[in-house]
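>> received
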Amino acid sequence: MKKESRKEWFFDRFCGTQLVVYTEDRKIVEVGVESDKGGDLLGNIYKGKVMNVVPGMQAAFVNCGMERNCYLPLDEGPVRLRSYDGSVGQTERRTLKEGDEILVQVVKLPRGSKGAKVTCELSFVGKTLIYLPNTDFLGISRKITDPAVRETLLKETDKLREKGQGFIVRTAAETVTKRHLKTESEYLKRVYRSVLESAKTAPVGSAVYHEWALPVKVMRDSLGGVSGIYVGDRELYERVLHLARMRSDVGEKKVFLHTGNRSMFAAYGLSEQIYELANTQVPLENGGTLVIDPTEAMTVIDVNTGKYTGDADLESTVFHTNLIAAREIARQVRLRNIGGIVAVDFIDMADEEHRLAVDEELQRALSEDKSKCRTFPMSELCVALFTRKRTNNELQSFMLKPCTHCTREGFILSDLYMAMRIRSEIIDCFAQGHTSAVLELNRDLMEKIFSEGYFTKEMNGVWKNRRIYLIGHRTYHEEKFTVRGEDSRVLTLPDEARLLY
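>> returned
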């Protein structure tokens, strides 16, 4: 019998950012990142103003108070709901004109030079139901497979909606009672009414509804079965503990506050796994490699045999590498939250049966992803295409930034990501018993640390009685830094050294 894997969540908050990691047997499966300042835009509802309507594109552009106007498709209809089994009724559509003030919800984040994609078909997500106040749709998750359960859930949910409204039954509803469904549906309807009330007086460009913060979304959407939840920040711990108490399948006994001397991710052996996600090259278990190259239009993944030479003929070697690559590709797109179009250049295989087997393995591995994936048959050139629904910011936006040394065509590690690594090494330095730390780094990054206040929380808390000196160098590459511990009361430092905060 296959041993059940140990599933754990890790929450931490630092440098003005919340980071959540989901592991199975201490191997990272998912990573989520969100700013403390405003969270994610996805799911937010804005009072917008139609700036122009483009009939040739069947689209309107809406001012929602963002840097760029949002894109509103006028002919999308129920296509957004195709990932759920269900039937669509007739939904009335108003004709938009310039100057109209409307409520829109962000369904795709801004990317590159493109503004956010929005919809007028609002949705409010609960743990077991998604409420669609102005879309005539009744749907159910395909992961609920028992025909009798599906029929019962749809019948009960149909009673909860009024004319022109809709609901989607989520996977978590499979074991809940009728009373729970009714209670949650009434709550979601109240949220919608409050949004309408706020919109009456809200100025154009303002948000009238914010999607839940990262910890709430994680606790809401996870289906239980976790062995433990570990939190590295006291304030965040109290919030997660409160959420766990409302979950009968989790409970507060599974929530632990990390109080060790080392950073939580380092203490549990996860730091290096997180750092590896900034690399474009991913090693495979047999010595082969993946090269992940994000572009404006799509993400391209190249498969290489690397050091693997195999034990038989070339075709068998290639086939074995491609099978392993298919599984790892599914894991990496989920880990890095890669969305949109993904093109995979597998190693050439002459045998058609091998191509079909690799194709099926990729589809099987992607089917385990919570985000909707759509695959296309592999071509004779051994190139496979699939799409993955983009649910929030890709991890790349947290870890990387455009490189200023190569006309912004390449990427280097982001300031926030570098601050995370520096923080971890400073924590380790103090864990070794040192009373002071000297940090030498790129001067621009040093100025960013001061201006953004990345370590303000630590200096007001666990580092309150510590001294940290920063020495900025113009000659240091943006990714180069050193941390050393000091115990002397009198330090000999250059004149440009600055005491942190």
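>> The radius of gyration is 25 Å.
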